[in-house]
Amino acid sequence: MKKQFRSIAVMSTIAMSFSIASAQINLDANSINFRNYDNPAHITYHYGDLRLQGGASGDTWGWLQCNRIVNIGNMVNYGSLVCSGTIDVFQNLNVYGTKNFVHPHPTDSTKLIKYIAIESGEALTVARGTAKTENGKAEIELPDHFSLVTSEKAPLTVLLTPESAPVLLYTKNKSKTNVTVAMKKSDLFEFGDVQFAFQVTGVRDGFEDEEIIVDTDKMLKNEREEPKELNPVKQRIRDIAKKARKINEKEKKDKK
Questions:
Q1: pTM, full prediction
Q2: pLDDT, tens digit, 9 for 90 and up, residues 101-136
Q3: CATH number of residue 144's parent domain
Q4: Are residues 151 and 186 in the same domain?
Q5: pLDDT digits (tens, 9 = 90+) for 202-223
Q6: 8 Å CB contact between 14 and 8
């Protein structure tokens, strides 16, 4: 009995100290509920698993609502996740459904347009556009951002589509910085120079050897491990994640 009274006294003291700041902690047999109504700068630290399960609709049980979530480890969500800001992911994002972007309908305010991301067995990079031959040739300078993220190890593919004339175009030279296109001489004589569309596809630098077929148990447990020795690109990504963590920790200290 003494132990029971002692624990009740501790809980009542905690509740009183938070009630002054318009905050409260509700404790029952199965859960702890934190609420703060006035001060958005207050921080709740939680170590270990944090699980929200089912229950009522609305902003009650089963919902987690906050202005910012910083997650360093794995984050598993089996329900809806609504974010009005930016989500930064420093590792992989595994999706069992589709990855969509939603666009407002330009003429019907009751409708939205949902586009689905293209799927692939490779981490592809794409540059596309239009160009025109000059004396049967065309030099295409690819954007800097394409060459900076595209691997030199994986092969490039180039698609060419002539417009307005049935000519034969072919890729004479290609690299991740530029592509040289040429036209069949007889077609140049017959049709002259033509405009054409192009698409250059490569593989993201540092992600050439991604594992496509993975072990089911590890995937379901979210235990897909990175190799111990990372390639330079993935190491830089890890360094960025560490820098973001330090910035977040500094922000926490500044708010105290």
A1: 0.69
A2: 999 999 999 999 999 999 999 999 999 999 999 999
A3: 2.60.40
A4: yes
A5: 999 999 998 899 888 877 766 5
A6: no
Distances in Å between the alpha carbon of 29 and those of 15, 26, 32, 33, 69? 16, 10, 9, 11, 27
Residue 14 belongs to a domain: no
Q: Choose among 199, 191, 196, 193: nearest CA to 137.
A: 193
Total structural domains within the chain: 2
Distance CA 196, CA 203 (A): 24
Q: What is the DSSP string of the chain?
A: -HHHHHHHHHHHHHHHHHHTTTEEEEE-SS-EEEEESS-TT------S--------SSSSTT----S----SS----SS----SS----SS----SS--EEEEE-SS-TT-EEEEE----SS-EEEEEEEEE-BTTEEEEEPPHHHHHHB-SSSPPEEEEEE-SS---EEEEEE-SSEEEEEE-HHHHHHH-S-EEEEEEEEEBTT-TT---S--HHHHHTT-PPPPSS--HHHHHHHHHHHHHHHHHHHHHHHH-
The number of residues in the chain equals 256
Q: Identify whether residues 171 and 236 lie together within a single domain.
A: no
What confidence tens digit (pLDDT) does each residue in 132-191 have? 999 999 999 999 999 999 999 999 999 999 999 999 999 999 999 999 999 999 999 999
